[in-house]
Each structure stands twice: as C-alpha cells, then as structure tokens.
Amino acid sequence: MSLDYTVLQAAAQWFAVMRSEVVSEADRQAWHDWLAVPEHARAWRRVEQISGRFEPLAGDPFSPVATALLERRQPSRRQALKTLSVLCGGGALALACGAAPWRSWAADQRTAIGEVRDWRLEDGTQLWLNTDSAVDIAYADQIRTVSLYRGELLVQTSGDQRPLVLRTAEGRMQTRDASRFSVLQRNGSTQLSVFGGAVEIQLIEQRRSRTVMHGQQVVFSDHHIEPDHPVQAGRQAWTSGVLLADNLRLDEFVAELSRYRQGYLGCDPRIAGLRVVGAYPLADTDRILEALASTLSLRIDRRLPWWVSLEPLQQETA
C-alpha cells in the first residue's frame, strides 16, 4: 500500500523532533496522538526503516545479536548465513526472512547503491549491472542461465549457440541469437527492453509466452504480459553513468534518480507533472537536484540528512 506524500513528510518531521536532544512532554504526547492514526503509524515505520540504514541499532531488541555479527572480524559469508539460519528458524529461513533478500545477499555479482559495473563472461557475453543489483550466473553444456534477484541488468550476447536464459521472480526470458536487452526487476513486475534481436518471455504462473522484438519494451507480472511499447531511448544510458530524460515527468525522474542515492528522495505531487529534459551525470546526485531546483524553480527540502524532497518554490511570508 502506497503512502501519502504529505503523511510521509509529516512522519519525517516527527522523526526529527523525537530524535532531538530535548523533547518536551507536550511534543511526546502530540507525537503519540499523531501516531494513533493507522496510516501515520505505517509512515512512521517507513521512516524508521530508512533511518535504520544510517543510525545505530540502539533500542532494537535484536541489536545485541546484530552488533555481535558486525563486530566479528571479516566473517565469511557461509558463517554469516549459518548464524542467520539459526536466528530465522533454520529451514524456515526462506519464509521468515524472504527468499529474494536471502538470494540477492549471497548472489555471485552485486552492486551497491550508486555503483555500476560491467564484465565479460567466458563465452564473450557482456553484462552491465546497475545500481543496487544482484545476479547469479550458471553455465552448463546446453544452456546459459542468469538469475536477476534485484535491480537491473543489460546483456549483450555473443555468438554462442547455447540459449541464454535470464530469470526473475515473474518469469524467464530466453534468446538464441545475438541480442542486446535490459531487464529491470521491480516490486512485483519485470520490465524487458529489447535493443537488438528478439527475446521470448515465459511466465511463472501461466503457460503463456510472447516474443519481444527489437525496439520494443514490455512489463510483465507472474501471470500477465502487458502490451508492447516502443523502447525508451534512454533505458541503457546508465551504462555510461548518465541518467537521460527525454521529456520525462518529474516524479518519474525522481523515482529513477532515487535508485542511485542512499535514503529517501521524494517529489511533491503539486510539481509531479513538470517535465525534465537533459542528460544528467550520476556521479553526483546532489548536483542533479540542484540543477533541477534551478531550472524548474523548485526548493530542495532536507528534513533529515537522508530524507530529501523537491517542493514548490514558495514565497516567504511575514
């Protein structure tokens, strides 16, 4: 369930108040009253979730265990997984902790937020891994398989005659010929963009398939494939460290930019429909925000160091 922008902003403001050095009893009571509304409580949990990536784990009932894990010297991945298995209930780990986070944490190749990597496989296939992404790669005599657990991947296949299969949570994509395509794993859906060749989609939940041709883009879930659309021109610009906007809505641009930043990045609904045009180097996302604020006459609201949003430029009142 999506949260209202104004409620999220209010939650961030309350978070700043409650983390201040001096909190009055009146503030504490007002916060409790505000938190009694279910949507407010959900927004507060969202802010806490984001803050947990930046602030100490003090007050967390699991913090002693987490601290012990963090303080160990260079623990191996196998040791850490064994410890987490005990914490999460052994065989119930996939259900308790979530299969996708588990697999992405242990994946062959991973990128941090803001990091983009590329490498060449043994058969000559070129891969580019976008920000905050994770993949596994498995080669066999008859087939090549790439599993994308999180984020985005661009593939340029070689002349190898073995089929290449790319799996996500929603389905599998397969190509036999030389192809160039990108796959973006979203929450509950996969987006496939084909820049060269052809890629066949097969859904997880149904025995449905469709071949997506060069120049087409499609979004699919585990049971439904949406109609094809012309591929977005800038969909592969990130491989060169650029976020390309061709008359893109501001809220869509901000959502894309947020993938390359730590913390929260939001856009006030009152300015969501403004249009963005240009090529923006991803090496410094703060400079991108400053450029947007200058060209579109916006205000950058920094409620917390890790909570930033774009707001309408408002005149000061006396």
Features:
29% helix; 3-stranded mixed sheet; 18 strands; 9 helices; 318 residues; Jelly Rolls; Phage tail protein beta-alpha-beta fold; 32% strand; alpha+beta
Q: Give the overall silhouette.
A: elongated
Q: Assess the beta-strand content as a share of residues.
A: 25-35%
Structural class: alpha+beta
User: What composes the largest sheet?
Assistant: 13 strands, mixed
Distance between the termini: 39 Å
SSE layout and pairings?
Blueprint lengths: L4 H14 L6 H11 L2 H14 L11 H9 L5 H12 L4 H5 L1 H7 L3 E2 L6 E4 L5 E4 L4 E6 L4 E13 L7 E4 L3 E5 L4 E6 L4 E7 L1 E6 L5 E5 L2 E5 L8 E2 L11 E8 H9 L5 E4 L7 E7 L3 H12 L1 E7 L2 E6 L6
Parallel strand pairs: 5-6, 15-18
Antiparallel strand pairs: 1-4, 2-3, 3-5, 4-5, 5-8, 6-7, 7-10, 8-9, 9-12, 10-11, 12-13, 14-16, 17-18
Helix pairs in contact: 1-3
